[in-house]
């Protein structure tokens, strides 16, 4: 029997269960369509390359003073000079430490608190209004208080990053928890699960993929507060270097610092994306 005859004679259920081969060259402009990894990387590289070309053309035109917009080559030279000075890796290291410490402290408190806010209405009523109020308070306004409470050490910088990320993270984690279908909770109750078991085995595990996405997003918040945190009597770090370059009108070094923060943030984002795929491979 030929392959075509086998396919025709197969029952409808068997034919339905057979996965359709994915067309790797499907039309691109389809709403919620798919794109193979090669095309995706090509588009991503084209966007960065296009931005670089536009930047180089504007700088080469000479219509803008290099003091306000240095060209790509000037920025590369500033990066090389920073690296040769021996301070580059030290500044990167201390900034990464401050961001990760403030972010980790936020996550350790926000994940269980957000989980319980999403699980119990009394806890929601007790904490959610405070969190909603606090998330609108600008972290910069806390600088005098942070200096008063924590002094001039590393704890002050970590505390400011914590303030900038914690309240948003709690609310987003609680929303991830409330999106767990009620049917799963009712099924666990039917099987005799206690409240603690429902929280640990149903709510937490079901919300874990969304929680990891929330942590990835709020890690970006932590990087945005780095420069503000390093305003507090810092003598090292990428944010401190940017502020020092501003003082001496070293615009090219300012660009280097900004771009380094963006590159490191992008790397950490991609690491968390990869972790998400490894932990939850069944999700699209």
Helix content: over 70%
Biggest sheet record: none
Q: Report the structural category.
A: mainly alpha
Low-pLDDT windows of residues:
1-23
- Overall residue-averaged pLDDT value: 84
CATH architecture of the largest domain: Orthogonal Bundle
What CATH first level of the largest domain would be assigned? Answer: Mainly Alpha
Strand content: under 5%
Q: Can you tell me the CATH topology of the largest domain?
A: MetI-like fold
Report the order of strands and helices.
HHHHHHHHHHHHH
- Count of domain modules: 2
Report the count of strand segments: 0
Q: Give the assembly state of these chains.
A: single chain
Radius of gyration, whole Å: 25 Å
Number of helices: 13
Distance between the termini: 37 Å
What would you call the shape? globular
CATH superfamily of the largest domain: MetI-like
Summarize the structure.
With 284 residues, this protein is mostly helical. The protein is built from 13 helices and no strands.
Give an overview in words.
By secondary structure, the chain is mainly alpha-helical. It has 2 domains: 11-61, no CATH class; 72-279, MetI-like fold. Helices cover 75% and strands 0% of the residues. The protein has 13 helices and no strands.
Key features of this structure:
MetI-like fold, mainly alpha, 284 residues, 0% strand, disordered N terminus, 75% helix, 2 domains
SSE layout and pairing:
Elements: H1 3-9, H2 12-17, H3 37-61, H4 72-84, H5 88-119, H6 121-134, H7 143-150, H8 154-178, H9 182-190, H10 195-224, H11 226-229, H12 238-247, H13 251-279
Helix pairs in contact: 4-13, 5-6, 5-8, 5-10, 5-12, 6-8, 7-8, 8-10, 9-10, 10-13, 12-13
């Amino acid at each position: 029997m030929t392959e075509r005859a086998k396919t025709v004679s197969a029952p409808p259920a068997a034919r339905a269960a057979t996965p359709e081969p994915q067309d790797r060259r499907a039309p691109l402009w389809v709403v919620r369509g798919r794109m193979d990894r090669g095309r995706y990387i090509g588009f991503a590289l084209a966007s960065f390359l296009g931005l670089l070309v536009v930047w180089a053309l504007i700088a080469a035109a000479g219509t803008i003073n290099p003091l306000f917009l240095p060209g790509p080559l000037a920025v590369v030279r500033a990066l090389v000079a920073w690296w040769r000075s021996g301070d580059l890796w030290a500044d990167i290291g201390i900034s990464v430490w401050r961001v990760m410490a403030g972010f980790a402290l936020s996550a350790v408190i926000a994940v269980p608190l957000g989980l319980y806010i999403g699980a119990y209405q009394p806890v929601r009523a007790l904490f959610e209004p405070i969190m909603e109020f606090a998330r609108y308070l600008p972290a910069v306004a806390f600088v005098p208080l942070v200096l008063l409470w924590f002094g001039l050490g590393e704890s002050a910088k970590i505390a400011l990053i914590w303030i900038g990320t914690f309240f948003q993270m709690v609310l987003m984690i609680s929303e991830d928890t409330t999106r767990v279908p009620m049917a799963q909770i009712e099924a666990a109750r039917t099987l005799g699960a206690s409240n603690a078991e429902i929280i640990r085995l149903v709510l937490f595990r079901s919300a874990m993929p969304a929680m990891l996405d929330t942590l990835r997003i709020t890690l970006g918040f932590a990087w945005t507060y780095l420069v503000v945190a390093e305003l507090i009597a810092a003598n090292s770090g990428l944010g401190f270097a940017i502020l020092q370059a501003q003082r001496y009108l070293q615009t090219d070094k300012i660009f280097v610092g900004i771009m380094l923060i963006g590159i490191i943030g992008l790397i950490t984002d991609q690491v968390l994306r990869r972790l998400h795929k490894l932990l939850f491979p069944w999700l699209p």
